[in-house]
Design brief:
globular, binds thymidine-5'-phosphate
């Protein structure tokens, strides 16, 4: 039996991931596919607890490697308990963020080094990666404006503009280095135009996946 496909959705803060993920889910289900929608950090009860630890603002400074290992601890639980079993059943998986987020946020945002994060990724995940990654790209100012109305910021949302500039640049660099996996969507346009671009990328991927 054919195994399912793995789609990740990435982007900076306020890029509209949640709304667009619902659109992708609807399109895949309309094509008769079974779909699991999940997120990182999180996706299992234990990984969701780790998410809370990571996102909560706290007085104690969080060491870079502590943050990096917590992100990967959550990810390994998620991959082994949710993503791989779903793919093995033939389900399609849509994850709100995956390893590219660690390269962008920890590797570039926190300046831990993209190569260092890539090395840990290879050690833990080998060549396991999404089949398709939709990157919702938005100028940092626009994302910050959208966040402003959303209540108390989490530990990442409290970072400064330069942090998010590095995150955005790293995502775009990843997309440029793996054009076969990434589709960059200009998320600064009005929502219907963004949704149309996402739908088009998903259609193309469905056709490609159906090809013998
Ligand atoms: P969000 O996806 O709901 O925006 O929140 C998750 C936050 O966690 C976001 O600020 C990005 C951050 N994050 C990392 O720093 N590294 C990671 O590997 C992942 C998956 C998320």
């Amino acid at each position: 039996m054919a195994s399912g496909r793995f789609i990740s959705v990435e982007g900076g803060e306020g890029a509209g991931k949640s709304t667009n993920i619902e659109g992708v889910r609807a399109r895949l289900q309309a094509a008769g596919l079974r779909v699991v929608v999940t997120r990182e950090p999180g996706g299992t009860p234990l990984a969701e607890e780790i998410r809370k630890l990571l996102l909560a603002p706290r007085e104690e400074a969080v060491c870079d490697d502590t943050e990096l290992l917590l992100v990967f601890a959550a990810r390994m639980q998620h991959v082994e308990r949710v993503i791989k079993p779903a793919l093995a059943r033939g389900d399609w998986v849509i994850s709100d963020r995956f390893t590219d987020a660690t390269i962008a946020y920890q590797g570039a945002g926190r300046r831990m080094g993209v190569d260092r994060v890539q090395a840990l990724r290879t050690l833990l995940l080998g060549d396991f990666a999404p089949d398709l990654t939709l990157l919702l790209d938005l100028p940092v100012d626009r994302g910050m404006e959208r966040l402003a109305g959303r209540g108390a910021p989490d530990r990442f949302e409290m970072e400064d503009r330069e942090f998010f500039d590095r995150v955005r640049a790293a995502y775009l660099q990843l997309a440029a280095s793996e054009p076969g996996r990434f589709r960059v969507i200009d998320a600064a346009r009005p929502l219907p135009a963004v949704q149309a671009a996402v739908a088009q990328a998903v259609e193309a991927f469905l056709l490609q996946s159906a090809a013998p």
